[in-house]
Amino acid sequence: MSIKMKLLAGVVLAAAAGFAGAAQAQVKEVQMVHWWTSGGEAAALNVLKSNLAKEGYAWKDVPIAGGGGNQAMTALRAMVTAGNVPTSVQMLGYDITDWAEQGVLADLSPVATKEGWDKVIPAALQKFAKYDGKWVAAPVNVHSVNWIWVNKAVLDKIGGKEPTNWDEFIALLDKAKAAGVIPLAQGGQNWQEATMFDSVVVTTGGLDFYRKAFIDLDPAALSSPTMKLSFERLAKLRTYVDPSFSGRDWNLATAMVIKGDALLQVMGDWAKGEFINAKKAPGTDFMCFRFPGTQGNVVFNSDMFAMFKVGAERQEAQYALASATVDPGFQSSFNVVKGSVPARTDVSDAAFDACGKKGIADLKEAVAKNTLEGSMAQGYGQKAPFRAAYQEVVDKFFNGQIATADDAVKQLVDAINAAK
Ligand code: BGC
Q: Is the pTM for the entire model greater than 0.85?
């Protein structure tokens, strides 16, 4: 063998060893940034952790509390800037699109194509989970925000029934007040008030109005008397909240309803995860009603696991996570615990309780009737700067830092314009 041949053979051997080395050097670990820190959320996340553990993956948890993910997104930016890129991140709507635009998200299409995601994930979710024809995120679920969660014993005690429109809602809250019960359990963070306001706007102006205002950012809708009335109604709701709501976490507000200290909470169906975690059952201990006057509409957000471009040694873990997430069995077992409904359209509702079954049926109907729309408060209406503007104005108004509904409308229009 000539020296040249020997050298070449050496290179080939080294390359083969390198290849084998790379294959062995796969990092069997999933590092996940998320904001699932409440009892119900942690229980749901455990389903995923244990499924991945069975496949030999360790779990590196990066929890950053705060619904809607505002804090998590801030922390994520810091991590990415420091070169510490997680395997995966819980993300919502336009945040995914924003990172995808920057070209930093991984391509999950090899998994998605093999598993036929295109056929089973609704178009409304694909709009965010895909970018430039490639899958960049694995959809976990569909949540919706236009729900109220009611303590059954308190409802019975005050002689109340399901309110189906705004006036009946107010009458019910008045009944609770008269009976000396806190009518409305509310937390005190901007995303919580904005999440409630999504529903107030839909019941006040209808879904078409909501779309004009928040999806089209139509100046006439944003500055309309209907928007003013929506703020007036939000102010009315404020009168049913106890004095110590400021800074309260959403799950503590849910706990008030679970314990019967308050009649109800307006919150996305992640609240159901808290009832389930407290061993409460729908129909017996609590009721799930659509926010009065929004029946037939589903204002949604969907948790997705966005994946960043990582080194080859971490790619298998990403693919394993993506596959485990969209797996039909997981979509059922996780969402039963989480309070959400499957992101896939082909998962049976058999394992779900009455609220889950309703959620699945409502979603199907909303897709068929085009009454499914993204939540402005939860990052599915507009990009982050608009959502932030919305959350801030709604929060200031709720906290009395903006005095009148007229001023709130003006400040909303200004803040939306400034975000453009
Ligand atoms: C997420 C839910 C989460 C909730 C409260 C929402 O933004 O979509 O999955 O349970 O925040 O943390």
A: yes
